[in-house]
Amino acid sequence: MTEIVAYGVLADEQPLLEKAFAGQHQLRCLDLLLNRDTAPTAAGHEIVSSSVNDVLDADVLRVLAAGGTRMIAQRSTGYNNIDLDEARRLGLTVARVSWYSPYAVAEFAWALALAVNRRVPRAVGRTREFDFRLTGLLGRDFHGRTAGVLGTGKIGTAFTRIAAGFGMRLLGWDVTPNPECAALGMEYVDRDRLFAESDLVSLHLPLLPETHHLVDATALGLMRDDAILLNTSRGGLIDTAALVETLRAGRLDGVGLDVYEEEAGLFFFDHSLDVMTDDTLARLMTFRNVLITSHQAYFTEDAARQIADTTARNVADHLAGRTSENTLTSPTSPTPGP
C-alpha cells in the first residue's frame, strides 16, 4: 500500500480525500503549502498530491524527484503553478482534475453578480445595525441587459445558461465557438466588442501566457462605466493595478473577485491578526463596490467529492502505468523540441 502525502488540504476537504483513498492507499494530509521550504517533507513519497496554491517550480520539482517522488496529482483543473517542462525532463507523471461540477463555479459567479448588483453586502451590514434605509442600494435588472462571457467551456456554458434564464443578450469570446452556447442565442464577437457592449463581463478562462492580464488597462477602458466585472477563474487574468486605477477613477458599477493574482500564501489562511503588506489587495478592499471572496467558487460538496475521486483514479492510473485525459506529463510523454 503506497503512502501519499497531500499538501494544502482544507479541513472540509480531508474527509472526502480520505474516503476516496480508503482501502487503497495510506494518505497523509497536510494543511501547509508545498513550496521550496516545505518540499523536503515529501522525501520518501512516490506520490505527492498538490493544491492550486502550491508552488511546483523547477527547484521544487527537482527536490521532489531527488526525494523519490514520481508523480504529482494536482487537485484542480488549472496547473499554471507547475513547471511542466521541468517535470518532463525529470520523468515525472503529472495529472490534474480535468473537470468537476461546472455548476459550482458558474452558480457562485452569479452569486457574486447578484450580490454586487443589488448591494447585498452593504444592505446586510446596515440591517445588522438596524439601519433599514434604501439609500445607495439601487440595483438594476439583469433581464434585457448584455452578458459577455470570455471562455465558453463547461463552466462558461453553465454560466451562459443561467444568463439566458435571466433573459439577457449573450455575447461570447473563445478560440472555438461552442454550439451549446450558440443554441442559447450567444453571438460570438471579438474581444474588444465584448468589453465595449457588455453590462456584465465574466471570465471563465485558463491562465496561460496568452491570457495573462487579458483584462488590462485597454480592456478596462473599453468597458462601460456602469459595467460589472466578475472573475472566478484565475487572478492573473486581470491586471489588478489597472483595475485599481479604473476604480479610483469612479468607473465600473461593481467587481466580484473570487481569485487574486497574488493570492498564494494569503487565500485559505487566517491573516486577521497580521499586518496586510499587500498594498494592492488592501486598496481593493477599500472600494465599496468590490466584493472579494477567497477562491471558494469551486467549493461545494459535489465538486470536492468529484475532485477527490478523480485524484484517486489518477493515482491508480499512474501505478498501473496508464494515462488518461487528466495526464499532463508522464515518463512516456514526448519531450517538446527546443
TrEMBL record:
- Ranges of Low complexity composition bias in the record: 323-332
UniProt key word Oxidoreductase: yes
Recorded GO MF terms: D-lactate dehydrogenase (NAD+) activity; NAD binding
SUPFAM superfamilies named among the record's database cross-references: Formate/glycerate dehydrogenase catalytic domain-like, NAD(P)-binding Rossmann-fold domains
Q: Which InterPro entries match?
A: D-isomer_2_OHA_DH_cat_dom, D-isomer_DH_CS, D-isomer_DH_CS1, D-isomer_DH_NAD-bd, D-LDH-like, NAD(P)-bd_dom_sf
**Coiled-coil annotation: which residues?**
none
Tell me the domain of life: Bacteria
- Which residues belong to any copy of the D-isomer specific 2-hydroxyacid dehydrogenase catalytic domain? 10-327
- Note down the stretches annotated as region Disordered: 319-338
What positions does the domain D-isomer specific 2-hydroxyacid dehydrogenase NAD-binding occupy? 111-297
Q: Which UniProt keywords apply?
A: NAD, Oxidoreductase
- Family the entry assigns: Belongs to the D-isomer specific 2-hydroxyacid dehydrogenase family.
Q: What's the name of the protein?
A: 2-hydroxyacid dehydrogenase
